[in-house]
Fold this protein.
Amino acid sequence: MNPDRKQPRNMLMTKRLNHYFGERQVLFNISLEIQEGTRHAIIGPNGAGKTTLFNTITGKYRPKNGSILFKGKDVTGFKPDKLVRMGLGRSFQINSTFAGLTTFQNLRMAVLARKNIRFNFFRNLDKMQPVTDETDTLLARIGLAAERNLPAGLLSYGKHRCLELSLAMATDPDLVMLDEPAAGMSRIETHQMVKLIRELTHNKTVLIIEHDMDVVFSLADRITVLHHGEILATGTPEEIKANQDVKDAYLGETKVGNAA
Amino acid sequence: MKNSFRKWLLWAAILAGLYTAPVLFGVFELNLLLGASIFALFSLSLNLLLSFTGLLSFGHAMFFASGAYGTALVLTRLDGCSLLSAIFVGAASAVLVALVLSPLLVRVGGHTFAMLTMAFSQIMYATVMKFSHLTGGNDGMSGFPIPPLVIPAVGLIDMSLERNFYYFSISILGLSAWVMWFFTRTPFGSIMVSIRDNPDRVTYLGFNVPLSKAIILGVSAGFAGVAGSVYALFQNMVSVDGVLGPLSSFTPLINCFIGGLGTFIGPVFGTGIGTILLELMSAHPEQAQLVFSLVLISVVLFLPGGAIMLYWKITSRWIVLRNKFQTAILKGNHES
Amino acid sequence: MDAIAVMLITQGIHGLAYGMLLFLVASGFTLIFGMMGILNIAHASFFMLAAYFAFQIMQWSGSFWLALLLAPIAIAGLGILMERLMLRQIRKFKLGKAVVLFELMLTVGIMVCIEEAVKNLWGTDPEIVNAPELLRGLVQFFGMTYPVYRIFIIGLSCSILLLLGLILFKTRLGNVVRAAVQDADMAGALGVNVPLVFTLVFGLGTWLAGIAGVAAAPMLTVFPGLANQMMLDSFIVVALGGFGSLFGAFVISMLLGELTAFGIQFFPGYSTIILFGFMALVLTIRPSGLFGEKE
């Protein structure tokens, strides 16, 4: 679209983000650069501040200081809905769908968001055929056509997770932020999930939090390790695998965690 | 096909019933019907918040009262104000109150919303009492002129005739109810339900939740205002305890619960049941509210879906029974 | 002493007495909300009902002390019945988020029900409850006269407060209750019988409202509308003091008591507007109340 978009540019940049819960500091000088078109994973033990970082970037929390640049524009303090309209999508660690609405209605909200139908008071939604068609296409694409009229809360966990991902992707965002998309899934489901993520996020910039190292190493181009709210290391998967600090701090703790 | 035909038939029957009511019934029953319709619209507007957005308001009466006082004031103070503009002023003042309060109201939900709306309606009560030179204070306002309805090329329609006023009001109320129903079917209506279900996700789909809530509040208040305005015309009187008293906010809530939460039409059934109940109890008016409250408690405890759910349960059981019966007959035929 | 000082002190004592009664009601209200997440709209109706119970018991026996003993127990019994038979029933439906709406509506239903039942049983005319002989009249000290009954209310409330404080902060039971108020789920996970504690706190809360009702009967007029003012005031107390905060409830009760006493003299008519306006402001800016813990 932009003529000057020849070389990859920064999709997202954070500069020295600090965040506090009350008196306790939970993020320390987080500076990140996410290149356009890359898949960037954030890993780290529980309580490292990964989800807090997500909440801060997406505008749910306002950082105490530091700034956030999205597509080169300073968006510090922007509300989530505005960021989403600028081209950001997010999935949650705990499923955050419309549990009481059917799968179809869930995805229809997504389609409305994508088509930018927000304050329309003059049409009967059920009679807006293009919306219905697009929703049904989307349903088929993510393999939930059979569950069209089932309330989302009654979907199986794996399928519910797919729906969660689809809602994050709904607005056709440029930057997708996924918070542990494969959390709590079986091996087979995880495999399918990775496939779906690859398919849906083709050509997009992805920022992903994940615990499952197989998922991380199979998806990510770059990895940032977060530990106690600080960035321990950033680099390619190979660099991270070789990094002694990371081994000490993170992989060690994970082993202890697994043993317990 | 068959279903939609039955639906049209039902609507035709309802319209015919409403049209012929003045012929069939006396003044008393007609007034009862009109009063119930006003409260049905009031309850419907509350239900927009309650069932569709999941917000429980303990102060919806303030919008009803704004409508009533707005209309009464403009008819008292402004000579030659037309009927429709008086109603418009009522609705607009309710919307105005909602919009002024919305910056505070849209930020909260649950208990806080309930308490906040209650606080605002208390403030409004005190304000109405304070400005008694305008509102009549405790005595209220009465005897303001009811202008005739002017229809271009047809002429004046005298509203002091019971029958004319009935047709006029029932049209306004019906039209408002229809507009509200349509509102719930629009794309924006689906945002409303989504906010009830999961406001965070709505935000992360890029919708502006506070602004959407403010619009819902405005629409809901507007129709409560229309109901209040028609009420003022119908009674030709507005009193502070009549439109802002402790029960004014609770009665429509109770109607919604008795009728059935989660449906559009529930409050209409609830109002109907309430009206019939009060009528049945008319020989013992002291106990009427007591019985009403006991009905509410039983509904909350034993029938959370309200009257609509009861109806569905009965019909579905009937369908199950019928199917059983039919299969039994078919089986019998087959065996023989 | 000059007349203004006398007036101020007399009004101050009035305010203190009302503030104490308010705190007795509001403390139960805030405890129940803090623990169960239930805003019991009917709470002040129990207060009003207790005043009528006291009236009735005095009709039968003539003893105020008997009323002070029995009426609150009867009210607590009703409260426990409400919790066991009704609020628990609603939680069985698995209504999800809507459960809040149903609980609120149930308490609204009970509020209307109590008010209407009272109207039917005792009529709408005010009833007079006489203070016992011992507590009538005036007492003089520091050259001023005070109504004995108000002093009695302050003393009674203080001793109940003390008792409540001892139970809540010095006993194991109190620890359990406070833990459940803070975080019912966590307390349950730690092996506390949460349903039993719920019932207990509900009983305690309504018992406190009952005491306040009986104590208020000779001071205020006993009529069905008694619940309304108390309900609105305890709403303000709980909203400003912070949901679940006893200390906050105490401070705001006292302030509100004094404000009511002095407000009538200094800015008649505007006190409601100011109070509720302030409450609305606090609710939106700091939903946890002035003294509640910040989320």
Observations:
- Residues 255-260 of chain A have pLDDT under 50 and may be disordered.
- Chain A is about 35% helix and 25% strand.
- The beta strands of chain A are 10-21, 24-35, 39-43, 65-70, 73-74, 88-90, 175-179, 205-209, 222-227, 230-235.
